[in-house]
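FORM 7B: Structural annotation worksheet

SECTION A. Query
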Amino acid sequence: QVQVVESGGGTVQTGGSLRLSCAFSGRAFSRLDMGWFRQAPGKEREFVAAIRWGGNTYYTNSVKGRFTISRDNGKNTVYLQMSSLKAEDTAVYHCNTVVVASGEWRPSFNSWGQGTQVTVSS
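SECTION B. Predicted structure
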């Protein structure tokens, strides 16, 4: 059974930084593509970043140059380092395994963890 536990969120001022963590269990983590998604109040969940099992990374345009996704296969954990945070980054952040479908990164498991809240205040 796949389980993810996200952590590391909090409240920061505009321009600040946070590092999110996602602890994964239930599958062979080192062979999985992993991604981060976020959902702001009143909006649909959106893709943020992905990392292939081989290490290639992908980002949505709005976070390129500010966010960095990485993974530690020894710890079954994926990270999201967020810098130069903006008010529009405020959301609940979730991780999941990912696949590319119809040219878009999509979550491949229907279940989600609780996520971690990121609030950026001006």
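SECTION C. Observations
DSSP finds no helices and eleven strands in the chain. The two ends are 40 Å apart (CA to CA).

SECTION D. Sign-off
Analyst initials: ____
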